[in-house]
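Note to self: user wants both folds in one dump. Writing first protein now.
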Amino acid sequence: MQGVLWRRQDNARPADPAPQSRHRPSKVRVLELGELQVSALSFPHLESARTAKWIRQSDPEVYMINYILCGEGVFSHAGSDTTLHAGDLIMLDGSRPFDAHRHAFQSSWSQLTLQFPRRLLPLPEKTVQRLLAVPIDGRRGMGGAFTRWLTDLNARAGEFTPADISTLTSVTLNLLASVIARRLAADDALTPEARRTALRAKINAFVEQHLADPVMSPRTIADAHHISLRYLQQLLAEDDTSPAAWIRHRRLERCRLDLADPRLNARSVQAIAERWGFTNPAHFSRLFRATYGMPPRDYRNLAYAVSNPPRSRVSSRPPMSRVLCTSAAIPTATPSPQRSGGSAPRGGDTAGGTTASSGC
C-alpha cells in the first residue's frame, strides 16, 4: 500500500491504571495531511491537560477541534467548565491551558480530533478566540456538514495518497471556516462586537469564494456586504491588515498550495497564477518571492524534491502505511515537535500532556 497517509497504534495500555479496574484496549489512527492531522481515538476514558508550564516548554501554535462521537466529556478552559455530548464540536487553542475528562462507550471510535497550525485557518485569531471551548452543534447545518466530512475522512483514510493532501486540506479548512462564520452569525443580535466579528468571518468566506475572480477588489467586497469601503478598511485594520493585503495574501497562499500539488505539475506557473487572480506574471513572481523567499518555480521544484526524495538501493524504512504497536499511553498527535499538538502522553512525549486510561 504505497503512499497511504495513515498510521495506527493499537492496544495502548493505560499510563497509570487504577488498582482492581478492568481495562479495555485503546487505539489511535492518524491521517497525515501535510501540516494538518485528523486523529481517530478509541477509549473508554481519556484525561488530557495542557498546562502553562508545558506551553512555555513547547508551543506549536495549533488549533485542535474535537468531535465527540460517543459518551460525554468536560473541558475546563479559562476558569470555566463546558460539558459536551455526542455530536458536539469544541475548538481549543494549543497555546492556552486547558483540562479535559472524557468518558466513552464501547464503540469503534470515541472521538475525532483535527489539528493544524493556527496560520492555516483563513480567519483572524481575534475572530476565532470567541469560540474557544464553546460547544458547536455538529448534528445539523454547517456543523453537520463538517462532522460528516471528518467522519468520511476517517472512514476512507486508507484510500488517500500524497497527491490528495492539498485538496483535502483546503476543503477541510474552508468547511471549518464556514462553521465558525455561521456559528458567529447565530450570535449576531447579541452585541455590536459580536456583529462585527460575524461580519469579519463572512467577509473572509466571501474572499475565499472569489479568489479566482481577478476583478475582486476592496470595493466589490464592501458592496457585497452593504458597507462602506472606509468601514471595511477599519474592520480589517483591527487585524493589522488591509482589504487589498488580505486578498493578496490569500491568493498567494492558494498559489503556493497549487505549486506544491504534484497533480498540477503539468500546469504552468503562469496558469496557476491566473487561476487565482494574478494577471501579470512578473508582478506575481515578485510578490511570491517577497513573501516566500524564492521564485515560484524554485518553490515548486523544492516541494517536489521534498515529497520525492532519492531512493537508495537497499532501504530498511517501512512503507508509509505502517502499524505501530506499543505499550505507551495513547497520544493525541504525532510526537513531532514541528506539528505536535498541545496534548501528548504524560511521561511520554515531552511536548505536552495527555494520558489515555483504559479504565473508567
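First done. Writing the second protein, which came from a different request thread.
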Amino acid sequence: MPVKLSKDTAELLEISGLANVYMNYKRHLFPLIGKGYIEMTIPEKPNSRLQKYRLTDKGLEMLREEDGDE
C-alpha cells in the first residue's frame, strides 16, 4: 500500500500553480473534498491551523486513470 502524504492548503495550491488565497481553495480544492478525491486529516476541525489534506483511494484511482490516458 502506498504511503499517503499530507499537504496543507498552501502546499496544494502551490503544486497546482495557484495563489494561496481563499477563493482558490473554495474554487479548486473544496470540490475535490466534496467528490471524495481528497480528505481532511482532521475532519472534526475543518478550520484548524494544523489541517492537512491527503489523497483518498478514489483520488488515487482517478490519477492512475488520467496517467493511463496519456
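Dump finished. Worth passing along: Residues 22-34 form the longest helix (13 residues).
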